[in-house]
Amino acid sequence: MPAVTRHLLLRDGCVATQLYELGVRRGGVLLVHASMRSAGGDAGSMADALRQALGPAGTLVVPAFTPENSDTSRAYLDRVRGLGDEARAEVRASMPAFDPATSPAPAMGTLAETVRLTTGALRSAHPQTSFAALGPAAAELLSGHRQDCHLGEDSPLARLYEADAQVLLLGTGFDRCTAFHLGEYRRPAPPRRRYRCVVASGGGRRWWEYEDIALDDSDFAALGADFARARAGAVGTGRVAAAPSRLFRLRTAVDFATEWLGEHRPGGC
Description:
By secondary structure, this protein is α+β, with helices and mostly antiparallel strands. It has eleven helices and nine strands.
C-alpha cells in the first residue's frame, strides 16, 4: 500500500476515533453541519471518517440547501443590493432551476457537497431546503419532503426527530443549527410568508411561489448558548480533526428550541 494511502487511512481512523469518543452512535443517524476550513484536511477523508464511525448500519445526513435559485432568499437580496431594475431582471433570468439530481449546494460547504455527490446518496425534493443522505435509512428519512414545507413536520427534520438522530456541529456554531428551525414550526401560530424560486419544468424552467413559516435564524446563536448552558450534560464537546465540535440529540435541541422560542420571540408566553 502506498505511503500516502496508508497516511490517509490512519488519519481517517484517528478522526473516527475522535467521533467515537465524542459520542457518535455506531449504527445511528447523524446530521452534520461542517466547516472544513476549521477542521482542516479534505472533505472526502472527513466523509469517510464519519461513515466509518457510523458503521454500515448508520446513516449520514447533510443539508443540501439551494438559496441560489430563489429571489426571496437572503443570498439573492445580498447579490442584488444596489442594482437597478434591469440588472436585477438579468440576475433572475440567469438563476438555475432546481433539479434534485444535479443542482449543486455550494453554500453548504465542501463536506455536504461531497456527501451529495457520493455514489448511492439520496436527496429530498424540496427546491430550497433539500437534504442529502448516505446509509440504509436515507430513503425513509428523505421521502415525503413536501415542497411547501421547508423544515417542518413534512420535512426530513421531523423524520430525524422521530429517528432520534444526533447532530454534529463540526467547526460550526449554533447559528448554523438547522434543527432549531423545527422548533419554529412547533410554536403556536408561527408567522408565515411567501417564498419564490425557480424549478425545472418540462425541460425548461418556471417560477414557483408558495407560503410557509417565516424562517428566522437571527437568534439561534443566543438560543444555542442557552441550550448549552441549560442542557450541559446533553451537549458533548471535543475536537474532530482540528475543529472544535459539539454533539447532541436532535430531539433534545428541538424540544428546548420550541420552548425557548415561545418565551423569547414576540407573541411568546
